[in-house]
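Question thread 4412

I'm putting together a teaching handout and wanted feedback from people who do this every day. The idea is simple: show students a protein as raw sequence, then show them the structure tokens that encode its fold, then repeat with a second protein so they can compare. Below is the first pair exactly as I plan to print it.
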Amino acid sequence: MPLIMPMGMHDRILKCGSSHCSVAPIKPGFAVHVGLGKAGARFHSLTHALEEMVEKEWGMVGKKGNQFVLDGRPFFVNGFNTYWLMIFATHEPNKGKVTDVLHQASSVGLNVCRTWAFNDACWMALQITPGVYDENVFQALDFVVSEAKRFGIRLILPFVNNWEEYGGKAQYVKWGREAGLNLTCDDDFFSDPTIKGYYKAHVKMILTRVNTITNVMYKDDPTIFAWELMNEPQCPSDPSGDKLQAWIEEMASYVKSIDPVHLLDIGVEGFYGPSTPEKMVLNPNHCSGQSGTDFIRNHQALGIDFASVHIYPDSWLKHKDNNVHLHFSKAWMCCHIDDADKMLGMPVVFGEFGVSRRNARFSFNYLDTFIYLIHKTLLKSTKKGGSGAGSLIWQLFPEGTENMDDGYAVVLSKSPTVSHILSLHSARLRNMVSKKPWKWPWSCRNRNMLDKFTSHDEL
């Protein structure tokens, strides 16, 4: 979603550091059903065993049909967004906050984090000008990747933002104008050859980066679950979708030419477009259908491995009541899962979902209900061997970073019900994957086993 960097963030970030805590790495998908305060000691006592488990199971996640796989078994995305990890890791006192949020996420069994691999010409920029990088900031990203592995968490790394925060396509176009290009709007990002060259150079820089901590090239690192072309790409200057589609096809091919192994997604919000006019009525509003995106057509591009969808009923349906929001969210998910099953033949990940508590209508109880609905809908697909492959909540924060709260922040140590819901969902997924033998396609035995973990009464 679009991000708003609060005024004075520079000063605030420098003041909210904490000491770097020492905790053991966590096995992927390992959930601990204890309070977060006690979890650290328990993790510390299991350091050696867990390190061995992480090393043994740390293979590359792939795709088989409409599901993710790891070592021949299904892999389900149960994750979160925390976009600012690289920025915090640039300042030594704040590195502890990176560790804190990864620690807390792993303690409830979350296994994938989506965080930015970009910051263009802003404060603490990674890319200062086209092709010129701040090595200190790059080393901060190295730290994020290495810490993620230590906690058994994989990463989805987007290459650029659609929005102006952290630079985005507007900054690329600004660079082009400064170089003398005749560019008329920010959407020229998708079509101008020079600007596309800037983007490709950044992609190559990220993919071929050798981590200064692990000595592993990013394109070879299983810690990275997937690359993402852009955070929420839109091209409203061309509602036909042709311009954005051509860009997706070109850039997907380029990424795969350098890294054919890692998974790749687009990062779109899931709006339907002209290729499926009968589905455009399912969009949350008229404007979303004019954004230049096209869910079905976009994901038919060669090189795209899974579909991405976002869910923000509170901002998309501002004047509707809570029940309408919940009904829309379920229908939105079911339609996209059905499309991924029948039309795309690929997994679908709901890469962002959340509710802003800045609106008094949305209580903590409503947030709990909303999260439960997302997980219940996904489990229904999982039960049938469907394309519903996972979700990532927007967004997790550790204590001491509330000044950056955009209204959607969830602090697990202060949200026991959310922690319980996430942990329970992790346990359900972990139990499904652990059962032997695993058969493709799903057997009746596996479906019956899953019934034990989908009772509404457990929440």
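The second pair follows. I'd like the answer to focus on this one:
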Amino acid sequence: MMGMRELGTNVGSVLASLMFVWAIFKNHFPYRLRGPIEKYIQKLVKFVYPYIQITFHEFAGEHIKRSEAFSAIQNYLSKKASSQASRFKADVEKDSKSLVLTMDEYEEVPDEFNGVKVWWVLIKHTTNSQSFSFYPNPDEKRSFKLSFHKRHRELITGPYIEHVMKEGKAVFLKNRQRKLYSNNPSKHWYGWKRTKWSHVFFEHPSTFDTLAMETKKKEEIKNDLKKFRQGKEYYTKIGKAWKRGYLLFGPPGTGKSSMIAAIANFLDYDVYDLELTTVMDNTELRNLLIETSSKSVVVIEDIDCSLDLTGQRLKKKEKDGDEEEKDPIKKKEKEESENKDSKVTLSGLLNFIDGLWSACGGERIIVFTTNYVDKLDPALIRRGRMDKHIEMSYCCFEAFKVLANNYLDINSHDLYAKIESLLGETNMTPADVAENLMPKSDEEGVETCLNSLIEALEEAKEEARKKAEEEARLKAEKEEKDKEESAQEAVKVDENSANSVVKENGFHK
């Protein structure tokens, strides 16, 4: 029998001969003759080699955008590679606590789906292109190559690839470091590496456990969020976009920002902090919405201060029109200022949160915050837009107990009864209560902090009493003054009437 060495030599000779013949064929045969021959050669190769290959490139599109499919495959194979590959790339994610292993270049990782075996390979191509582009191509191009037998074409191109995409996205959500985004001015949207949103890692520690609020109210909000997170099919059934609006209102210092962080941490969502004053018009607002991802909380804080959304701006223009016509310089300065100001309208904002564009993507929480809910247009906060209204009120005793546990690690104390009584008589924000409970030095203990809070509550109670007395005094003085003015007006009317009668009688004489 022919030995392995002889067999290898013969195979090598055959391959070398074929390569030599192929080179002569390509160089010397006319193009019109090569076409039909290459066609039959490809058919022969397909018959001999019954495998199909699918390539997933890392970058695609006109502006070299990273492919979502490539990212999903990379995340999916990170689990397979850790148990089957022999060469890895390591990366640290999620606040430097999670080590993620991915397959190295040219490493082959097998996979099995419904009894069918497939093979994945990561390919890297290095280019030395000298061409110039406003969006330059990366020097290294990577791609995943999937190989499988042609008899399993329908299974692999359908259910298997869908399975890989789904599992890859789940791995990404599990390992990702959540982010806090802020919108950039539109002049920074274009060019190489320019984006509409910039970000930092979201690391706010607030949770519903640390939130100073009544337990019943917190449980109600948590149940609402759970229902929303699991409601994809329900929202599709009722024909609504998969989003929900939250209106947080109350005095400053009542924990509105902490509530937003607690919602994001509870749902494990990213946060988009939208600053409306940097958005020039409704078109830019829509473009920003399109760039937000699903599983996110879109926040507009202090909505009543962000923009004039009630039409008062138009009235002001009409009022100032005559003055501008008299002063051309002032008119020009006014026009230049208006060109720089945001032209986002109430209609554009409503379309953003509840119109056709709100259905672009899904699984979003939209949050508005305000200190003065009465200033907002009713159309902006009606149910269906801001579905849940949450009042962030002054600190109650139950909220105080949460803060005391957070800051002092105590659940009860002899001074609790006095604090409960004072909180029932005085309005103090959770932020002010927390400031008094926070030890300012190592020498300050539980007793000192609680007494500090009691003192602050008593001072606030006394100030509120003096303020109420002053307001009552001013009100009484105003009423007395109004009575005097009314009496004087009555006397004047009587005198005028008498004079009128005298003149009239004198005229008849």
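Top answer:
Good format. For the second protein you could add a caption like this: Residues 4-128+137-175 form one domain. The chain has a mean pLDDT of 80.
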